[in-house]
Structure formats: structure tokens, C-alpha cells
Write a sequence for this structure.
């Protein structure tokens, strides 16, 4: 039925011109079309144009060539290489051609076919509107690999029913693995312009139209009217966050009246699969009317040359319900950053049209984890080893490190190292055949007492990351002294003291260093922190405490190191040095009613908490006032001009076993006085012009909610020119004075700004700059006046409307209807009494013409305005 109706419809609309052909005498009746491109070599590309035409149209037999515009000044006719009849009276046509571009650039590859079919409801006069399709090709030397366009696998051949959901998905995939997005765009016509009067099919609840930007599924909830509609879907491809090309599909939707309901494909969740394993899951569909339903699948995994997926059977038909099994034996070559899209389509056998449902899902093929990672310490470094990697098409490895373990094991679809674990990338290997990495902390060496944990991730050419390896941890051998305490016990400029403690070595290699041993304690020179002096030594291995005195702990930071020497006769040598540890030094930054406490944290252990102590001004005792997990704390709501004193207690730990827990260290005592050094917020300025009096009225508000409110004065700044130099115009000494009038003697142009000053002398930045231009008060001339009229109170002279301002001078000439000059002036007020300047007689009634060059005082110079018009004299 629908076929006969369409045939009759198109026979009526049959026309005689076809573009994109060197010759034709038949209308094309184009239903849909799209253009793909594929890189061949260098600047040469192969282009494929797919068109879907109305099968009964006799024009199909004359469609052997179409014309492509390459957007580089040239066009080509490309031949049809395939013609296949599809359901619903649609003929599939494939045209293929090649072109070599002259150089890099952004090219719109297009074809304009002169006639769509007639009667398209959302394209006015569609029989005379060309079908314009295009793809965008970007050839750039900075893009990396050459681009191949997305391919659309699902033909636009399905029809719909009135009031029943209609679905379509172009079934796009990108051969390069680029990311795709989808959006609806207007259908294009003559010369690629939006078709005049084009609209989407009728929309609005409940008639919702939606295109999913991620999956590409088009959904039309309840088509309200029989007929033919055209939409255009733009498939855009992205690489490294930048758009690199697109493909447009212009397609037709035919809606008819029927009593059928579309089948339903049961939703399938997105999934991941480890390369080298097989993904298997069932796909199910049913028909609510219990008619025959056919289930089919399409997607890039099904058309791969190596290791293709399958759905058995595909297609599969059954009455009411149908189930098929999807199976994909994946391989390393399928690993990539972007997922693969699969589309599952159910079609019923209803009449007069077959209705469909389409669901999509994404499958991400993930590289396997590097296996059997181990970590072994040697000296001040740790060496990692792992098995030969399974996927040799990977590019290399990322190496990650963290102090202490997490117990992490990758989850479903979780590639790489999640940021919340706290791991830091410390290395990258660009050779997938490597199987080891040595961490020496970039030559500085690792620290005793720390549990170092590692994970390794493989990465691929497109920067896809594998699952993470197992977590491997190790400690350095405790074969040197490990400092645990550098605590200030007395704060003084000359008699300060520091308590230094270290943990003795327990894993000395007694074969290489049989002993006896000696500790040597070193301290940095505050004026030269990189230089150390020896303070003392001891041969008692259990003597691990040193009291350092006569220091300026009030002003200086001190760093310590403990060296361990082997004293075997004839074999005196340094076994190793401890990591450097610094005293905690508290700095205080005074500000308005607040003190900002900041302190260093240069120690080899991990301080996980800091307790802030403040001296009670009444009892003289230091009380805890708060804590922090970072070396910073702000003490607020203080009194300016009053001294406050503080010290910090640091609480830390080594993650390796065998150390005292917790590690407590104190900073020096530091005092400071809050001061008001915060300027007020800039006021919010507004300017209005009184044109009658030539005055600018300034008013402003203070934003005291976020700034101090102790403003005592305002400075008013003025500049004649936008962007020019400001100078102080005036000042106001009352915080309640927030208005000001400025009179410039017949000019209102200029720029203003306000600065607020507080009681401590702090100045705000400029307020917003408010400028008044020349056209703030218009210069307007009347079109009639009545000179020497006895009963006239106004309009006895020709003059501009009052008020006006900013006019410096003008050049005015008034002519009679024959072009004779009757009046000239440079006076901005004009004041023509209607007399002829030559005869001094009152001019007769009639129309007089003027040309007036008005020079107004504008920002940054005078502005010339030319007024031309006419004025009528009435007596």
C-alpha cells in the first residue's frame, strides 16, 4: 500500500533537472546521503558517497556519476560502483573516487543534488530544494596521523507509525579510534546554506525529539502526523580534545498510520573486556504484539579482519521473543582508548510498515596488567621487576610510587591508577620489552624507615592504559642511622636548644663492615644551609640522643645529619648517612585581625597532624587552640595591636616497622601582632547624566560584606579620555558621603573612578571605571519653527532642543529650496530668527534644508557628527 502511494506521489512530482550529473532529465528523489573519506597516501584521499534514492524513480538508471566539490577550487565526477535495492523502496548507491589535495588545510568535501522529493513536511517547496551533503576533512601537520572519517553502518531505511516511538542510530564507528559525538543540525540546500523555513519535525511534549550526543541514537517519541520528514545528523570526531573532522547524514523519515507497536531490545550495559579473553553475553528482544521479531547486530567488532566478534545467529527471528548470543574473542590489537560501539536492532513484521527498536552499548578492550611485580631494595634504591608483557603492541610503561600500601586491585573497567590512591608517576619506559626499573629518587636516594609501594601500568600508542599491576612494596635496609626527632626545647636568640634523636641501624652488613662503629653528628650553618659542621661523635651504638645548645632558635632553622663509620683497623670508611632532618620553624604573617601561621615540614618521616598552641594572655600557659593536617593555620578574630605567641607540635611516623610511635617534635615559640594591612574593597560606581544642567551625578556603594568596613575617606578620580591618565578630582571625608556632582562647563564626557581609604591608610583599588560618552545627551533639531509670530511663546527661533551638552562648536549652513544659502553659523545654540543673511528679511513660509557638522567633546577627542535635514518656517 505505502509503496503504491509513494509511487503515485512521486509520479506527480516528477521533474526534469538533476545536478551532480553531467546530463540528466529526471528528478533524483533523494531520500538520504552521506560522504566518507579514507586516507590513501600523502595528500591523496578516497571518497565514498552513499545515497539512498526512491527505487521506483526512473532517475536511478541515470545516476552513474555524481559531482564532488573538493573545496580546493576543483570538482570531480565520481562513478557509481554499487547499486542495491533495500526494503521500503530504497535503493542503496555507492560512488567512489580519489583526489589529491594541494596541501594542508580544512576542506569541506560536498555534493549538491538539485532535487529532493516533493512533499517533505518540514522543508517548504522541497521538490525545488537541493540536497546538500558534506564531510569536513582537516589535513594538518600538527594532527599526528592522517585522518579517516567515521563510517556509518546502519542505513536510514526504517519507517515509523503515528504516535509510536521512532528510533534511528547511524551506527557510526571511527577506523582510527577517535572519539565521536552527535548532534542534530539543520538540513542544507542551495550552496550549503540552511534551507529557508526548515524546522525539525513538530516537537514539544509529548512529541519529544532527542539525539543522544554519546550513543548517537535518535528518538522521536510520538510522531503526530503522517508524511515525510528530513533531519540531518552531524557526526563529529575528536582527537586529543580537538575536533578533526565530521560527517553529515541527511535522511528522510516516513511516518504512516498503523496500529502496530515497535519491538523492544532489552537494555545491555556497557562493559569492558581484558584483551586476550572472550566476551560473551545474551541479547534479547521481544514484540509487545507477539508478532514475528527479527534481531540483528552491527558494529565495528563484527567487521574486523582479525578476531571479529559474532552474534549467533545474526539475524535471528522468532515469534514474540528472540535471543541471540554475542561472542568476541578479543586480542591485544583491539586495545585502544576509545570503546567500541555495538548496535542491536529488533524489527517486527507489522503492516503497513515494519517498526524497529535500536539499542547501543560500548565495549572497551583493556590491556592486561603487568604481572608479578616485585620490589627489592639495594642501598638507597629499590629495583622493580615484572614478567614479560603479554601485549607486545603496547608502547611502554608508566611507573607509580606511593609511601605505604593501599591494598588496591583494579575494578571493573578501571584502567591506570585512580588519583584517589595518592600514587605519583615517577617514571616512564618507552620500550615494552623492558621488564625492570630502578627507583633512586632521581639520584637523591630513598629514605630509610619508609614503606615504598609501586604499581606499573602499560600504555599504548593512543595513550590507552592497561589495568594496573599488583602492588609491590619494599623498605630500605636499616643499615644507617635514621633521625626521628629534631625538636626545639628552648627558644632564644643565643641560648636556644634542640633535642636530636635517631634510631640505631639494625641491618648492617657485618661481613663488609664488621665494626666497631662511630656516629658523627653534623649540623648545617644557618647562613649557608648546604654546608655542615661536625658537632660531636660517639662509638656507643646505643647512644642515640644529642642535645644541641647555644643556638639562635628564635630566628634560624637548623638541619641535622648523622653519619655512620666503620672503624675496623685498616678498613675505616663511611657506611652511610642518615637523611637530613630539619627543625620545625614557625613563621607568622600578620594581617587584619588575623595571624597566618606557616611552618616548614622538611623531615624524612611523615607528619600527619599538627597541633597549634597559643599562649594564654591571662595564665601565661600555652593552650591548644586547634589542629591541622597541613603546615598552615589561620588564627582569626584577634585584636589589632596586641601580641600573640604560638608554637607547633608535629605528630608523625615512619611507615616501616621498628620505630617509636608517634614521633613528636616542637617548633620554636614565635610571636606577632595583627595589623590592619587589608585595603577596603573597591566601591561599586554608577554615573548618571543631567543633560539639562550638563552635570554628571556619581553615586557608589561599599561592598563591606567581604572587606573591612572602616572606611574614612574617598578619592574621586577623573580622566578626560577612556584609557587615559586619571587624576584626583576631589575627596570626601565622610563615609556616608557616597554621591558627588561634577559640572564640566557644557560637557559631560569623561571617565570616573572611586578609591576608598580606611583608618589605617590602606587604599582600595579603583572601583569600576564609569565613562560618559558624547552621545549621552543627544543634539536634536526641531523640524518646524514660527519666527516673528505674535502669539508664539516658543519656537520663535530655530535652535536645538534643550538640554544638550558636550557640543564644542558646529558648522551649519541652511539653504532654500533652490539651493541658495540663507544662513550660516558656528554657534551650538544656532538661534536663527528666520531671516535671510543676504537681505535681512524674514524668509517666506516653506521648507529649508540644512547641513550641520556638530563637533562634540567625546572621550579622547572631538567627535564629528553630520546632521542633514529640513525645517519648515510657518508665520
Amino acid at each position: 500500500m505505502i509503496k503504491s502511494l509513494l509511487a503515485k506521489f512521486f509520479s506527480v512530482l516528477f521533474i526534469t533537472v538533476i545536478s551532480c550529473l553531467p546530463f540528466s532529465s529526471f528528478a533524483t528523489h533523494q531520500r538520504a546521503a552521506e560522504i566518507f573519506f579514507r586516507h590513501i597516501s600523502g595528500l591523496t584521499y578516497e571518497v565514498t558517497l552513499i545515497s539512498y534514492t526512491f527505487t521506483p524513480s526512473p532517475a536511478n538508471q541515470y545516476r552513474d556519476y555524481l559531482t564532488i566539490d573538493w573545496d580546493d577550487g576543483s570538482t570531480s565526477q565520481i562513478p557509481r560502483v554499487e547499486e542495491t535495492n533495500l526494503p521500503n523502496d530504497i535503493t542503496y548507491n555507492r560512488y567512489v573516487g580519489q583526489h589529491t589535495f594541494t596541501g594542508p588545510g580544512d576542506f569541506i568535501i560536498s555534493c549538491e543534488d538539485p532535487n529532493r522529493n516533493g512533499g517533505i513536511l518540514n522543508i517548504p517547496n522541497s521538490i525545488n530544494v537541493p540536497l546538500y551533503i558534506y564531510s569536513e576533512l582537516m589535513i594538518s601537520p600538527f594532527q599526528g596521523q592522517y585522518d579517516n572519517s567515521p563510517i556509518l553502518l546502519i542505513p536510514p531505511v526504517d519507517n515509523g507509525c503515528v504516535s509510536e516511538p521512532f528510533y534511528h542510530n547511524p551506527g557510526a564507528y571511527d577506523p582510527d579510534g577517535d572519539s565521536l559525538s552527535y548532534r542534530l543540525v539543520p538540513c542544507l540546500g542551495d550552496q550549503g546554506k540552511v534551507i529557508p523555513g526548515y524546522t525539525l519535525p513538530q516537537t514539544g511534549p509529548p512529541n519529544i525529539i532527542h539525539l543522544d550526543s554519546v550513543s548517537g541514537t535518535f528518538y522521536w517519541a510520538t510522531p503526530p502526523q503522517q508524511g515525510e520528514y528530513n533531519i540531518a545528523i552531524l557526526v563529529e570526531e575528536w582527537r586529543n580534545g580537538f575536533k578533526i573532522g565530521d560527517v553529515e547524514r541527511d535522511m528522510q523519515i516516513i511516518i504512516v498510520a498503523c496500529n502496530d507497536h515497535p519491538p523492544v531490545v532489552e537494555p545491555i550495559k556497557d562493559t569492558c573486556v581484558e584483551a586476550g579473553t572472550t566476551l560473551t553475553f545474551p541479547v534479547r528482544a521481544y514484540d509487545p504484539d507477539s508478532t514475528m521479531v527479527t534481531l540483528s547486530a552491527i558494529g565495528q567488532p563484527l567487521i574486523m579482519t582479525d578476531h571479529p566478534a559474532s552474534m549467533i545467529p545474526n539475524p535471528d527471528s522468532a515469534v514474540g521473543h528472540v535471543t541471540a548470543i554475542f561472542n568476541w574473542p578479543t586480542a591485544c590489537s583491539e586495545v585502544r582508548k576509545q570503546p567500541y560501539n555495538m548496535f542491536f536492532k529488533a524489527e517486527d513484521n507489522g503492516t503497513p510498515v515494519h517498526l524497529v527498536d535500536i539499542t547501543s552499548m560500548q565495549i572497551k578492550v583493556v590491556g592486561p596488567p603487568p604481572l608479578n611485580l616485585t620490589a627489592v631494595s639495594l642501598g638507597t634504591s629499590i629495583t622493580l621487576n615484572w614478567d614479560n608483557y603479554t601485549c607486545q603492541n603496547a608502547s611502554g610503561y608508566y611507573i607509580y610510587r606511593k609511601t605505604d600500601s593501599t591494598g588496591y586491585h583494579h575494578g571493573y573497567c578501571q584502567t591506570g591508577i585512580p588519583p584517589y590512591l595518592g600514587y605519583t608517576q615517577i617514571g616512564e619506559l618507552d620500550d615494552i620489552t623492558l621488564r625492570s626499573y630502578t627507583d633512586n629518587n632521581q639520584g637523591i636516594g630513598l629514605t630509610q624507615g619508609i614503606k615504598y609501594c609501586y604499581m606499573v601500568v602499560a600504555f599504548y600508542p593512543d595513550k590507552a592504559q592497561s589495568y594496573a599491576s599488583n602492588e609491590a612494596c619494599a623498605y630500605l635496609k636499616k643499615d644507617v642511622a635514621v633521625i626521628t626527632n629534631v625538636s626545639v626545647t628552648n627558644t632564644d636568640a643565643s641560648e636556644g636548644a634542640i633535642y636530636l634523636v635517631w634510631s640505631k641501624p639494625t641491618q648492617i652488613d657485618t661481613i663488609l663492615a664488621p665494626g666497631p662503629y662511630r656516629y658523627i653528628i653534623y649540623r648545617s650553618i644557618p647562613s649557608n644551609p648546604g654546608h655542615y659542621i661536625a658537632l660531636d661523635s660517639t662509638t656507643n651504638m646505643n647512644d642515640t640522643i644529642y642535645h644541641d645548645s647555644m643556638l639562635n632558635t628564635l630566628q634560624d632553622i637548623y638541619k641535622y645529619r648523622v653519619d655512620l663509620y666503620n672503624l675496623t683497623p685498616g678498613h675505616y670508611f663511611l657506611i652511610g648517612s642518615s637523611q637530613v632532618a630539619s627543625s620545625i620553624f614557625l613563621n607568622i604573617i600578620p594581617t587584619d585581625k588575623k595571624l597566618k601561621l606557616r611552618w616548614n615540614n622538611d623531615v624524612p618521616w611523615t607528619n600527619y597532624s599538627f597541633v597549634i598552641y597559643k599562649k594564654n594572655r591571662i595564665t601565661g600557659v600555652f593552650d591548644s587552640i586547634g589542629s591541622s593536617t597541613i603546615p598552615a593555620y589561620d588564627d582569626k578574630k584577634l585584636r589589632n595591636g596586641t601580641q600573640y605567641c604560638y608554637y607547633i607540635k608535629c605528630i608523625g611516623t615512619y611507615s616501616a616497622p621498628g620505630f617509636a610511635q608517634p614521633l613528636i617534635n616542637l617548633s620554636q615559640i614565635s610571636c606577632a601582632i595583627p595589623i590592619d594591612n587589608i585595603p577596603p574593597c573597591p566601591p561599586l560606581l554608577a554615573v548618571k547624566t543631567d543633560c539639562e544642567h550638563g552635570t554628571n551625578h556619581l553615586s557608589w556603594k561599599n561592598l563591606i560584606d567581604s572587606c573591612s568596613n572602616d572606611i574614612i575617606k574617598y578619592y574621586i578620580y577623573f580622566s578626560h579620555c577612556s584609557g587615559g591618565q586619571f587624576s584626583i578630582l576631589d575627596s570626601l571625608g565622610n563615609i556616608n558621603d557616597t554621591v558627588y556632582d561634577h559640572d564640566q562647563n557644557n560637557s559631560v564626557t569623561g571617565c570616573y573612578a572611586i578609591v576608598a581609604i580606611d583608618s589605617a591608610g590602606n587604599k582600595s583599588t579603583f572601583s569600576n571605571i564609569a565613562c560618559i560618552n558624547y552621545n549621552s545627551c543627544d543634539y536634536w533639531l526641531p523640524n518646524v519653527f514660527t519666527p516673528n509670530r505674535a502669539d508664539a511663546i516658543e519656537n520663535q527661533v530655530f535652535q536645538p532642543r534643550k538640554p544638550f551638552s558636550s557640543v564644542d562648536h558646529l558648522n551649519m549652513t541652511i539653504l532654500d529650496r533652490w539651493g541658495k544659502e540663507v544662513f550660516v553659523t558656528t554657534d551650538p545654540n544656532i538661534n536663527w530668527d528666520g531671516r535671510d543673511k543676504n537681505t535681512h528679511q524674514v524668509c517666506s513660509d516653506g521648507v529649508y534644508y540644512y547641513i550641520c557638522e556638530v563637533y562634540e567633546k567625546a572621550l579622547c577627542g572631538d567627535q564629528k557628527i553630520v546632521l542633514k535635514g529640513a525645517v519648515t518656517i510657518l508665520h
